[in-house]
Amino acid sequence: MDTSRSYLEPSSFSKKMAAAIIIVYAVITLIPISWMVMTSFKNVDSAISYPPEVLFEPSLEGYVNLFTNRSRQSQEYLDSLPPPKNWYEELVRSREMVITGPSKFLGRYSNSMIIGFGSTFASVFLGALAAYAFSRFRVPLKDDLLFFILSTRMFPPIAVAVPIFIMYRKLGLGDTHLGMIILYTVVNLSLAVWLLKGFMDEIPKEYEEAAMIDGYSRLQAFFKVVLPQAMTGIAATAIFCMIFSWNEYAFAVLLTQFNAQTAPPFIPTIIGEGGLDWPAIGAGTTLFLLPVMIFTIILRKHLLRGITFGAVRK
Q1: pTM
Q2: Which of 117, 142, 236, 303 is the most exposed place for a label (fewest CB within 10 A)?
Q3: Which residues contact 235 (CB under 8 A, 6 or more apart)?
């Protein structure tokens, strides 16, 4: 009997306790998200009711308010209008308002898509090149350079907000997609280099050496041999970079106003009749969550290895 194996094997009670802790943690974590989604399907009265309503009649008022601009009108003016053409006009009329045009949410949402995915691609691509160089070549002062790259993550990005604001204003990069992509790429680059270097170190050099013997150049060997082998690390790194770029708020507030403003600073500014329109904010936050959640689910198989790479080595 292998006593060492049985000693290291967790007991049935330990497994049940671990499962219970994970379930409780998952439930607690999902409560704010579930409440946000529920709020998006409430009407304004249900969203601000006290005590909070758990059981309610679902409504799409929040989504209608999110995508439209409305104005309050007198009952005499509403009676003079033709009948509503569709269900959402009827919903707005029931609040004694009329739709005056589309809101700015779609534009802000598309800005988030362009800046988020653009900076993620740039961070992973440049990070892969730098990580390959650090992993394969004799770079002078390599350890010092790696520490310097890591040190850029040792202070909050907002600490350099004022110098960046002044620099962007001089260069004309303020409130532009290019400026935000460059900024988020620079912030994410240190994370990408350090994560991907660990994966590059795990790939045997013999693979690319064999490819170069067969006639591949160094660059061809990198793209056709090394990158496919490092796809696990690339996927995990892309998830982390995307989450930062997608949720970043401080730089977006400071450096954008109209053309390149993303959804995070726009959603809290949604105003209703008596203040914040909580169903519309819940609807905007729910829709904002979907792209990064889908992106993470698609690459979820690589996420655990991306977090734990190098933890166990044979």
Answers
A1: 0.86
A2: 142
A3: 299, 302, 303, 306
